[in-house]
Amino acid sequence: MGQPDLSFEQELWSLGVSRIAGLDEAGRGAWAGPVMAAAVILPQRVDVLATLHGARDSKQLTHLEREHWAGEIRQVALAWAVGWADASEIDEIGILPATRQAMLRALAGLAVSVQYLLIDYIKWPKCPAPHQMLIKGDDKSLSIACASILAKTARDKVMQELDGQYPGYGFAGHKGYGTAQHRQALSGLGTCPAHRKSYRLGQP
């Protein structure tokens, strides 16, 4: 398990670049619900690493740990925002363009302007700002790890809401991913408006 740090951020800070947004997404592989993205700008302070020590790639944390760190991140961050693209938009333009759109919406929601982006790797030929794509970026950059936590917790909340709107699918449990329970629900109930019809739903 990687413990992300501020190496990339500190190098940019030393060059006078202070407003660096970490970007990450959640939900690209799910069969239902939106793809969510989050942008997080951490303040240029030496104590940030100690304050957020333990925040890491959201997949390495439990639900309770993610909720704890999401609260800490929102308090510490200079700015943060989430964006999303729903299932119908994913079906219309495809998951990769929809993911980029969610990221653009997260960036647009930030209270301050961005000078540079650190992004968990995604193909983005027309990225709108100076940036660096990092493979497994949420293991390396604390800004990206924080974004992964905010994207995941925001998406989990949406899936809980969709569970209430469309009971029987178990969205609150599997969060729209292709589990055996989800596959069984699809075979009995068919799809609902939250499903991504362009995906091969129900396939192992």
How would you describe what is shown here?
With 204 residues, this protein is α/β, with parallel strands linked by helices. The chain has a single domain (7-155), classed as Nucleotidyltransferase, domain 5 (2-Layer Sandwich), CATH 3.30.420.10. It is 42% helix and 15% strand. It has helices at residues 7-14, 48-51, 63-76, 87-93, 95-108, 142-165, 171-174, 180-189, and strands at 20-26, 35-41, 79-85, 116-120, 131-134. It has a 5-stranded mixed beta sheet with strand order 3-2-1-4-5. A hairpin with an 8-residue loop joins strand 1 and strand 2. The longest helix has 24 residues, at 142-165. The model has no long low-confidence stretch (mean pLDDT 94).
Blueprint (SSEs and pairs):
Layout lengths: L6 H8 L5 E7 L8 E7 L6 H4 L11 H14 L2 E7 L1 H7 L1 H14 L7 E5 L10 E4 L7 H24 L5 H4 L5 H10 L15
Parallel strand pairs: 1-4, 4-5
Antiparallel strand pairs: 1-2, 2-3
| Tally of helical runs | 8
The structural domain count equals: 1
For the secondary structure, the number of strands is 5
**Biggest beta sheet summary:** 5 strands, mixed
Strand order of the largest sheet: 3-2-1-4-5
CATH architecture: 2-Layer Sandwich
Distance between the termini: 28 Å
What is the CATH class designation? Alpha Beta
**Beta-strand percentage range:** 5-15%
